[in-house]
Amino acid sequence: MNNNDSIRISVGGDTVFVNKDDFKVGNRGSKNKQRRRKRGPRNPQPKEWLASNLSQMKIADYKPFNFVDGEGIRCSLYVSGCMFACPGCYNKAAQNFNYGTPYTQELEDRIIKDLGESYCQGLTLLGGEPFLNTQVCLKLVKRIRKEYGHEKDIWSWSGYTWDELMQESEDKLELLSNLDILVDGRFEQDLMDLTLQFRGSSNQRIIDVQRSLKEGQVVIWDKLTK
Ligand code: SF4
Protein backbone atom coordinates (compact mmCIF):
# COMPACT_ATOMS: atom_id res chain seq x y z
CA MET A 1 0.00 0.00 0.00
CA ASN A 2 2.71 2.45 0.98
CA ASN A 3 4.26 2.78 -2.47
CA ASN A 4 4.82 5.58 -5.01
CA ASP A 5 1.14 5.57 -6.09
CA SER A 6 -0.14 6.32 -2.58
CA ILE A 7 -0.22 9.35 -0.32
CA ARG A 8 -0.15 9.00 3.45
CA ILE A 9 -2.73 11.14 5.29
CA SER A 10 -2.85 11.48 9.06
CA VAL A 11 -5.91 12.94 10.77
CA GLY A 12 -5.71 12.96 14.55
CA GLY A 13 -4.33 9.57 15.46
CA ASP A 14 -5.59 7.87 12.26
CA THR A 15 -3.43 7.24 9.24
CA VAL A 16 -4.74 6.20 5.83
CA PHE A 17 -3.10 5.68 2.44
CA VAL A 18 -4.98 7.07 -0.53
CA ASN A 19 -4.31 6.56 -4.24
CA LYS A 20 -2.68 9.67 -5.77
CA ASP A 21 -5.12 9.61 -8.71
CA ASP A 22 -8.00 10.36 -6.36
CA PHE A 23 -6.39 13.69 -5.58
CA LYS A 24 -6.17 14.94 -9.15
CA VAL A 25 -8.88 17.60 -9.43
CA GLY A 26 -9.76 16.66 -13.01
CA ASN A 27 -10.06 12.99 -12.08
CA ARG A 28 -12.24 13.75 -9.12
CA GLY A 29 -14.59 15.69 -11.37
CA SER A 30 -14.78 12.90 -13.91
CA LYS A 31 -15.28 10.30 -11.16
CA ASN A 32 -18.18 12.33 -9.80
CA LYS A 33 -19.56 12.58 -13.32
CA GLN A 34 -19.25 8.81 -13.74
CA ARG A 35 -21.00 8.27 -10.41
CA ARG A 36 -23.78 10.64 -11.46
CA ARG A 37 -24.05 8.94 -14.84
CA LYS A 38 -24.26 5.53 -13.17
CA ARG A 39 -27.16 6.58 -10.92
CA GLY A 40 -30.21 5.01 -12.53
CA PRO A 41 -33.89 5.94 -12.36
CA ARG A 42 -35.77 5.51 -9.06
CA ASN A 43 -37.59 2.23 -8.36
CA PRO A 44 -40.81 2.50 -6.32
CA GLN A 45 -42.37 -0.19 -4.17
CA PRO A 46 -45.86 -1.27 -5.33
CA LYS A 47 -48.40 1.49 -4.51
CA GLU A 48 -45.67 3.68 -3.00
CA TRP A 49 -46.40 6.59 -5.34
CA LEU A 50 -50.06 7.54 -5.64
CA ALA A 51 -51.63 10.14 -7.92
CA SER A 52 -53.95 11.11 -5.04
CA ASN A 53 -50.89 12.26 -3.04
CA LEU A 54 -48.82 13.69 -5.87
CA SER A 55 -50.79 15.05 -8.82
CA GLN A 56 -51.43 18.80 -8.98
CA MET A 57 -53.54 18.26 -12.12
CA LYS A 58 -51.13 20.39 -14.16
CA ILE A 59 -50.36 20.17 -17.86
CA ALA A 60 -46.88 20.75 -19.27
CA ASP A 61 -48.07 20.98 -22.88
CA TYR A 62 -50.72 20.04 -25.39
CA LYS A 63 -49.70 19.38 -28.99
CA PRO A 64 -52.53 18.73 -31.45
CA PHE A 65 -51.95 16.99 -34.78
CA ASN A 66 -48.35 15.78 -34.47
CA PHE A 67 -46.65 12.86 -36.20
CA VAL A 68 -44.12 11.74 -33.61
CA ASP A 69 -45.95 10.46 -30.50
CA GLY A 70 -47.22 7.18 -31.92
CA GLU A 71 -48.88 5.90 -35.05
CA GLY A 72 -50.64 8.35 -37.41
CA ILE A 73 -51.59 11.95 -36.70
CA ARG A 74 -52.18 12.37 -32.98
CA CYS A 75 -53.09 14.83 -30.23
CA SER A 76 -50.58 14.66 -27.38
CA LEU A 77 -51.19 15.68 -23.79
CA TYR A 78 -48.09 16.14 -21.62
CA VAL A 79 -49.03 15.94 -17.93
CA SER A 80 -46.77 17.41 -15.22
CA GLY A 81 -44.98 15.40 -12.57
CA CYS A 82 -42.86 12.27 -12.54
CA MET A 83 -41.02 10.55 -9.70
CA PHE A 84 -38.72 8.27 -11.70
CA ALA A 85 -36.01 10.92 -12.24
CA CYS A 86 -34.36 9.05 -15.11
CA PRO A 87 -30.93 10.54 -15.89
CA GLY A 88 -31.16 11.93 -19.42
CA CYS A 89 -34.95 12.41 -19.21
CA TYR A 90 -36.21 14.04 -22.44
CA ASN A 91 -38.55 16.39 -20.54
CA LYS A 92 -36.91 17.18 -17.21
CA ALA A 93 -38.97 20.31 -16.53
CA ALA A 94 -42.13 18.18 -16.57
CA GLN A 95 -40.82 16.03 -13.68
CA ASN A 96 -42.10 18.83 -11.41
CA PHE A 97 -45.76 18.28 -10.43
CA ASN A 98 -46.26 22.05 -10.27
CA TYR A 99 -44.87 22.76 -13.73
CA GLY A 100 -47.16 24.20 -16.40
CA THR A 101 -50.81 25.18 -16.24
CA PRO A 102 -53.92 23.64 -14.63
CA TYR A 103 -55.93 21.09 -16.60
CA THR A 104 -59.20 22.83 -17.46
CA GLN A 105 -62.59 21.88 -18.85
CA GLU A 106 -61.83 24.18 -21.82
CA LEU A 107 -58.69 22.19 -22.65
CA GLU A 108 -60.58 18.91 -22.35
CA ASP A 109 -63.31 20.21 -24.69
CA ARG A 110 -60.66 21.32 -27.18
CA ILE A 111 -58.94 17.90 -27.11
CA ILE A 112 -62.29 16.17 -27.71
CA LYS A 113 -63.01 18.54 -30.61
CA ASP A 114 -59.53 18.08 -32.13
CA LEU A 115 -59.90 14.28 -31.93
CA GLY A 116 -63.09 14.63 -33.97
CA GLU A 117 -61.05 15.50 -37.09
CA SER A 118 -61.28 12.54 -39.44
CA TYR A 119 -57.50 12.52 -40.10
CA CYS A 120 -56.65 12.35 -36.37
CA GLN A 121 -55.96 8.77 -35.26
CA GLY A 122 -56.03 9.25 -31.52
CA LEU A 123 -54.71 10.60 -28.24
CA THR A 124 -51.27 10.14 -26.70
CA LEU A 125 -50.58 10.63 -22.98
CA LEU A 126 -47.02 11.51 -21.99
CA GLY A 127 -45.31 13.52 -19.33
CA GLY A 128 -44.27 13.61 -16.80
CA GLU A 129 -45.99 10.41 -15.72
CA PRO A 130 -49.60 9.79 -16.86
CA PHE A 131 -50.08 7.09 -14.19
CA LEU A 132 -49.29 9.62 -11.44
CA ASN A 133 -51.88 11.97 -12.93
CA THR A 134 -54.83 9.61 -13.17
CA GLN A 135 -57.28 12.33 -12.05
CA VAL A 136 -56.62 14.08 -15.37
CA CYS A 137 -55.93 11.10 -17.62
CA LEU A 138 -58.81 8.88 -16.46
CA LYS A 139 -61.36 11.67 -16.83
CA LEU A 140 -60.14 12.36 -20.37
CA VAL A 141 -59.88 8.75 -21.59
CA LYS A 142 -63.31 7.88 -20.17
CA ARG A 143 -64.83 10.80 -22.07
CA ILE A 144 -63.03 9.73 -25.28
CA ARG A 145 -64.41 6.18 -24.92
CA LYS A 146 -67.89 7.61 -24.25
CA GLU A 147 -67.86 9.94 -27.26
CA TYR A 148 -65.73 7.98 -29.77
CA GLY A 149 -65.76 4.40 -28.51
CA HIS A 150 -62.72 2.68 -30.03
CA GLU A 151 -62.83 4.75 -33.23
CA LYS A 152 -59.90 6.77 -31.78
CA ASP A 153 -56.98 4.90 -30.25
CA ILE A 154 -55.20 5.87 -27.01
CA TRP A 155 -51.46 5.50 -26.45
CA SER A 156 -49.57 6.22 -23.24
CA TRP A 157 -45.95 6.34 -22.22
CA SER A 158 -45.06 5.34 -18.65
CA GLY A 159 -41.95 4.95 -16.52
CA TYR A 160 -43.70 1.99 -14.86
CA THR A 161 -43.14 -1.41 -16.44
CA TRP A 162 -46.09 -3.64 -17.26
CA ASP A 163 -45.22 -5.97 -14.36
CA GLU A 164 -45.08 -3.05 -11.92
CA LEU A 165 -48.43 -1.73 -13.10
CA MET A 166 -49.98 -5.16 -12.46
CA GLN A 167 -49.19 -4.63 -8.75
CA GLU A 168 -50.36 -1.03 -8.66
CA SER A 169 -53.35 0.93 -7.36
CA GLU A 170 -56.90 0.71 -8.78
CA ASP A 171 -56.72 4.06 -10.57
CA LYS A 172 -53.58 3.02 -12.46
CA LEU A 173 -55.15 -0.29 -13.47
CA GLU A 174 -58.29 1.51 -14.61
CA LEU A 175 -56.26 3.88 -16.76
CA LEU A 176 -54.35 0.94 -18.23
CA SER A 177 -57.60 -0.87 -19.06
CA ASN A 178 -58.66 2.11 -21.21
CA LEU A 179 -55.48 2.16 -23.32
CA ASP A 180 -54.70 0.55 -26.65
CA ILE A 181 -50.91 0.91 -26.49
CA LEU A 182 -48.49 1.31 -23.56
CA VAL A 183 -44.82 2.18 -24.06
CA ASP A 184 -43.46 0.91 -20.74
CA GLY A 185 -40.40 1.38 -18.55
CA ARG A 186 -37.91 4.07 -17.52
CA PHE A 187 -35.52 5.71 -19.92
CA GLU A 188 -32.19 3.91 -19.35
CA GLN A 189 -29.32 6.03 -20.61
CA ASP A 190 -26.98 3.03 -20.99
CA LEU A 191 -29.54 1.39 -23.30
CA MET A 192 -30.28 4.50 -25.37
CA ASP A 193 -30.93 3.78 -29.05
CA LEU A 194 -32.32 6.59 -31.16
CA THR A 195 -33.14 4.26 -34.06
CA LEU A 196 -35.93 2.51 -32.11
CA GLN A 197 -39.58 3.08 -33.03
CA PHE A 198 -41.26 5.48 -30.59
CA ARG A 199 -38.90 4.85 -27.66
CA GLY A 200 -35.54 6.03 -26.42
CA SER A 201 -33.98 2.95 -24.81
CA SER A 202 -34.08 -0.74 -25.69
CA ASN A 203 -35.59 -1.86 -22.34
CA GLN A 204 -38.83 -0.05 -23.24
CA ARG A 205 -41.57 -2.04 -25.01
CA ILE A 206 -44.51 -1.09 -27.20
CA ILE A 207 -47.30 -3.19 -25.69
CA ASP A 208 -50.69 -4.07 -27.12
CA VAL A 209 -52.67 -3.43 -23.92
CA GLN A 210 -55.99 -5.04 -24.80
CA ARG A 211 -54.40 -8.28 -26.06
CA SER A 212 -52.02 -8.38 -23.09
CA LEU A 213 -54.89 -8.03 -20.59
CA LYS A 214 -56.86 -10.73 -22.40
CA GLU A 215 -53.96 -13.17 -22.61
CA GLY A 216 -52.53 -12.41 -19.14
CA GLN A 217 -49.06 -11.74 -20.51
CA VAL A 218 -47.25 -8.99 -22.37
CA VAL A 219 -48.09 -8.98 -26.10
CA ILE A 220 -45.90 -6.69 -28.18
CA TRP A 221 -47.54 -4.37 -30.74
CA ASP A 222 -47.79 -6.32 -33.99
CA LYS A 223 -46.61 -3.34 -36.09
CA LEU A 224 -43.24 -3.18 -34.31
CA THR A 225 -40.43 -2.99 -36.85
CA LYS A 226 -37.55 -2.11 -34.53
S1 SF4 B 1 -40.19 8.18 -16.71
FE1 SF4 B 1 -40.10 9.53 -18.52
S2 SF4 B 1 -40.77 11.55 -17.78
FE2 SF4 B 1 -40.26 10.30 -15.98
S3 SF4 B 1 -38.13 10.85 -15.52
FE3 SF4 B 1 -38.12 9.00 -16.82
S4 SF4 B 1 -37.91 9.78 -18.91
FE4 SF4 B 1 -38.54 11.50 -17.63
Automatic annotation (TrEMBL):
<feature type="compositionally biased region" description="Basic residues">
    <location>
        <begin position="30"/>
        <end position="41"/>
    </location>
</feature>
<dbReference type="GO" id="GO:0004748">
    <property type="term" value="F:ribonucleoside-diphosphate reductase activity, thioredoxin disulfide as acceptor"/>
</dbReference>
<keyword id="KW-0479">Metal-binding</keyword>
<dbReference type="GO" id="GO:0046872">
    <property type="term" value="F:metal ion binding"/>
</dbReference>
<dbReference type="InterPro" id="IPR007197">
    <property type="entry name" value="rSAM"/>
</dbReference>
<keyword id="KW-0408">Iron</keyword>
<dbReference type="InterPro" id="IPR034457">
    <property type="entry name" value="Organic_radical-activating"/>
</dbReference>
<keyword id="KW-0411">Iron-sulfur</keyword>
<dbReference type="GO" id="GO:0051539">
    <property type="term" value="F:4 iron, 4 sulfur cluster binding"/>
</dbReference>
<keyword id="KW-0560">Oxidoreductase</keyword>
<keyword id="KW-0004">4Fe-4S</keyword>
<keyword id="KW-0949">S-adenosyl-L-methionine</keyword>
<dbReference type="InterPro" id="IPR013785">
    <property type="entry name" value="Aldolase_TIM"/>
</dbReference>
<dbReference type="InterPro" id="IPR058240">
    <property type="entry name" value="rSAM_sf"/>
</dbReference>
<dbReference type="InterPro" id="IPR012837">
    <property type="entry name" value="NrdG"/>
</dbReference>
<dbReference type="Pfam" id="PF13353">
    <property type="entry name" value="Fer4_12"/>
</dbReference>
<protein>
    <submittedName>
        <fullName>Anaerobic ribonucleoside-triphosphate reductase activating protein</fullName>
        <ecNumber>1.97.1.4</ecNumber>
    </submittedName>
</protein>
<feature type="region of interest" description="Disordered">
    <location>
        <begin position="22"/>
        <end position="48"/>
    </location>
</feature>
<dbReference type="GO" id="GO:0043365">
    <property type="term" value="F:[formate-C-acetyltransferase]-activating enzyme activity"/>
</dbReference>
